[in-house]
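Continuing the batch. This is chain 6 of the set; chains 1 through 5 are on the previous pages. Same settings as before, nothing changed between runs. Recording input and output for traceability.
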Amino acid sequence: MEEKNAANHKVFIQDREFLEITGVTNVEKFTDGEILLETVKGMLNIKGEKMHMKQLNLEAGNISIEGYIKMLSYTEDVKEKEKGKGLLQKLLK
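Output for chain 6:
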């Protein structure tokens, strides 16, 4: 049986000018300086300059970006992080 591409997450960067990502489930924010993607492995924040989307296919979970890539960082999903916490811990945060 064929496996969906969205189940895997890969990041490919070429010369800091081309970025290809798989496992993308949603595009939260997209400007020429910052991109925020929801992936199967968490939120991915991309910062750069003059970035633009060359290709987007959310059904396949793929995005291609061109521009000058300065930074990639993953952030934890707050909902997932707090899932195991009790009510008291959430209130005292």
